[in-house]
Hints:
- Helix content is 35%, strand content 18%.
- By secondary structure, it is an alpha+beta fold.
- The chain has a 7-stranded mixed β-sheet with strand order 5-4-14-15-16-13-17. Strands 7-2-1-11-20-19 form a 6-stranded mixed β-sheet.
- It is globular.
- 47% of the residues are buried.
Amino acid sequence: MNSSDRPAPPPHHHPGTDHAIRTIAIIGGGTAGWMAAAVLAKALGQQIRIRLVESDAIGTIGVGEATIPQIRNLNHYLGLDEHEMIRQTKGSFKLGIEFSDWGRIGDRYMHAFGDIGQSLGLSPFHHYWLRATQSGHPHSLWAYSLNQQAAIQNRFGPLERLGDSRLTGLRYAFHLDAGLYAAMLRSYSEARGVERLEGRVVDVKQHSGDGFIQSVLLENGTEIEADLFIDCSGFRGLLIEDALKTGYEDWSHWLPCNRAAAVPSETPTDASGKPLMRPYTQSMARPAGWQWRIPLQHRVGNGHVYCSAHLSDDEACALLLANLEGPALTEPRLLQFKTGRRKKAWNRNCVALGLAGGFMEPLESTSIHMIQTGISRLVSMFPDKNCDPALAAHYNEATRFEYERIRDFLILHYKATQRQDTAFWRACAEMPIPQSLQQKIELFEASARLYREADELFTEIGWLQVLLGQSITPRAYHPLADAISDAQLAEFLDHIRLLINRGVASLPNHHSFISRISANFN
């Protein structure tokens, strides 16, 4: 676990000071609120009173059903049993995201978790693969991805390493019912002293001198004071925006989709009549956006993310319903959003998490992860009652960097398209992009080089798969890849494929593995 994933130990205050934070109020439940409550309760123990306010009358968004591997760090920190979590959330395992029709109609590639091939000497694997392809090598980059090969065969199981080689095993995340995951975290939090208050916030009081939040007033007249407030109130930003007027940086000129229609459907069956439960998320490009498909044990989560300037709500819902694999279980639910981020995630004595802090659509399943890193940063920079501005500024700078690097990765999916079939895709291909992204693309096109800055979320291997998957081809590879003979290169590549194929063949069917987990808990 790296430093951005691991909550720090509880803060230690000098005896006799009266600046220590004693009370925290979390405004809003859902995944963001209960994840914050669980981590803070674990990290801070009984020394701080934590109260969470949520209203049963206000629904949560509940579309964040796909995760990335870092969530395993959070679950491990909390001490959650992985198989028990899968059972309670009716979840499944996720080896990556398959993208279809993004570069061109008919294209298909996967952003798979985990390694691809293995480095040789000082040069990353893909440079050797690029050298081989220039000599007519027939295998795609993904022939060297254990995750992708397992995913397309619907296989999953614990696999730490491939034999006695240096090749790592499966790296995975989860598909889960976000509402059930939040309920699990709520039980965990309440068992550790977190108090839940039912009610709707109708007023926010601020101190006259410094503008810090003093209390929130609930509809039933209850007033809740706290030293530190965490805003998990969703898009509205009840504290961070309505009260503190923090401001919002709009990125919809780069990420133009602003609506989503979501609907659950019945689980389809495979050719043998068994439930079809793919161990990966699907992202299928549509005329004015894209559709997700997320397999759970009891249903499939589906959604259509689209741009309202190019598609009406009725058209979006019709397109979504026409592309389900099983019957819809409800009517589609419509959501509106604006991509971007709050100008400050930490303002005075308020920290915004989840949708209250910003939103960049669910294209790469980053929403839950950004809640996780926001909480981890808060614990590692935990303040006293004064909420030192230098500390808040450092938190905000780290948050800005994280958001902007994820933003660039998402923009790449839209920009790197050859599609000209609709006005939406033509506009995406032609749009100006941030200089930070432009430089990354140009460097890769010139020499296949990729560099990860600081602790940005997406690795070089993630960037590599989207760039190549959407037909951005380098003109050259690293000269070090020429240091071995053609015969040595062929042997190197063949050996990796052999190990991967053996590893995949040893894995059970994904649905069978989950059935075994469930049976062990019954």
